[in-house]
Amino acid sequence: MWRTPTRSVLVLVSSWFCLWSLCTAADDVDGEVKIEVLFKPLDCTQTSKKGDLVNVHYDGYLAKDGSQFYCSRSDKAGHPQWVVLGVGQVIKGLDIGMIGMCPGEKRKITIPPMLAFGEKGKDPVPPSATVLFEVELFTVSRGPRSMEAFKEMDLDADKILTKAEIKEHLKMSYEKGGKPRDDPHYEKIIADIFYKSDTDNDGLISAKEFNIYGHDEL
Ligand SMILES: [Ca+2]
Ligand SMILES: [Ca+2]
């Protein structure tokens, strides 16, 4: 196992290694995220970008034998996961691979170990493993913690988000994504949002509580 400080060095060392070994480890050495679009809806006007809140299902597999190590459909009661893109909430390769997706799109994303779980791996992913994710994206909310998103959700423009306002927004997003859900589904997401964001526990999300990344003035 070599230890290298940067990706470029890794690629260089790997190239030398290839000369000696006929490149049998070729799947691990190119260091790039590979994206394969499995399904793209005809209406693909809004695509995900860094900072967006996306709602996704994703299944993780080991590239070497195709065995599944994660499935969001069976984790956390099967709810799609809420992920803010580009902030390290998920492994780097997914942050990269989920950019530019529109609601309803499905992708297969192949991620080298350095952009996944690294040299050490993370149980049950073994060390230096190339992983593969199948991602289905349901909704994209523009700049989830931005002024733009806050204003969109704040229907009465009082600079406070109520549960009803957030629910309305969720419903709209899901309907736009072509996958409307039942009430208990929205209630669970809202409970999660308030648990994480309503820091003063007053049952409302203020602009300050909403803007956890502080990248926009409210
Ligand atoms: Ca309001
Ligand atoms: Ca509050």
UniProtKB/TrEMBL annotation:
Residue ranges annotated for the PPIase FKBP-type domain, each copy included: 51-141
InterPro entries on file: EF_Hand_1_Ca_BS, EF_hand_dom, PPIase_FKBP, PPIase_FKBP_dom
PROSITE patterns in the record: EF_HAND_1, EF_HAND_2, FKBP_PPIASE
Keyword tags: Endoplasmic reticulum, Isomerase, Repeat, Rotamase, Signal
Enzymatic class: isomerase
Enzyme Commission number(s): 5.2.1.8
Record protein name field: peptidylprolyl isomerase
Domain EF-hand positions: 141-176, 185-218
Domain of life: Eukaryota
Catalyses which reaction(s): [protein]-peptidylproline (omega=180) = [protein]-peptidylproline (omega=0)
One Pfam family hit: EF-hand_7
Gene Ontology MF: a single term: calcium ion binding
Extent of the signal sequence: 1-25
PANTHER family for this protein: PEPTIDYL-PROLYL CIS-TRANS ISOMERASE FKBP7, PEPTIDYL-PROLYL CIS-TRANS ISOMERASE FKBP7/14
